[in-house]
């Protein structure tokens, strides 16, 4: 992360009025499971920001924040909130184009002002959360109340489902086949 990008992140964080700490991260360990294992954080205190896309014209997007020990309910809650027949995780290219950030480092701080931000209610029950820092080189440690300082944040009950069988990328449940 460049000095200018880190300064921009710090400005967005400071504007919330909440305490925070920026944690340096080896970019190779930025994916949630690897980060938690390497740096000693639990999955239930790590909150992933996941960009979703509704299959409609014009395209509809939202940023969702869920705990890493859960999975985003894209097929029901997200789809209904977007008002579309289908919804999916945004591609890496779409995520980069809309946010300027790489998957594994997406943060809710500094997103475009017209992008809805939905936070699973379970995130707000944690004493602290680790969020992406806008780069695979940084994470943000803060109380979850920091999210309430962002414009347009909506707390959503049931945005995420319980513990997935297998953790896939960005806190999403990995595809599975039941016996």
Strand content: 15-25%
Structural class: alpha+beta
In the CATH scheme, the class would be: Alpha Beta
User: Helical content, roughly?
Assistant: 10-25%
SSE run: HEHEEEHEHEEEEE
Notes on the structure:
With about 180 residues, the chain is an alpha+beta fold. It has a single domain, classed as YbaK protein (Alpha-Beta Complex). The protein has helices spanning about 5-15, 30-40, 75-80, 90-100, and strands at about 20-25, 45-55, 60-65, 70, 85-90, 115-120, 130, 140, 155, 160. The strands form 3 sheets. Strands 5-2-3-6-9 form a 5-stranded mixed sheet. Strands 1-8-7 form a 3-stranded antiparallel sheet, with no helix packed on it. A two-stranded antiparallel sheet has the order 4-10.
């Amino acid at each position: 992360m460049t000095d200018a990008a880190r300064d921009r992140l710090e400005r967005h964080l400071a504007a919330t009025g909440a305490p925070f700490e920026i944690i340096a991260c080896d970019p190779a360990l930025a994916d949630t499971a690897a980060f938690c294992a390497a740096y000693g954080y639990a999955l239930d205190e790590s909150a992933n920001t996941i960009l979703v896309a509704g299959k409609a014209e014009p395209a509809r997007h939202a940023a969702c924040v869920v705990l890493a020990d859960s999975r985003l309910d894209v097929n029901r809650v997200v789809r209904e909130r977007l008002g579309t027949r289908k919804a999916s995780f945004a591609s890496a290219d779409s995520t980069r184009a809309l946010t300027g950030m790489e998957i594994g480092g997406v943060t809710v701080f500094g997103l475009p002002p017209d992008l809805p931000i939905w936070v699973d209610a379970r995130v707000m029950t944690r004493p602290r959360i680790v969020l992406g820092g806008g780069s695979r080189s940084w994470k943000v440690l803060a109380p979850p109340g920091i999210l309430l300082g962002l414009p347009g944040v909506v707390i959503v009950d049931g945005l995420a489902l319980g513990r997935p069988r297998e953790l896939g990328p960005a806190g999403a449940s990995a595809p599975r086949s039941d016996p």
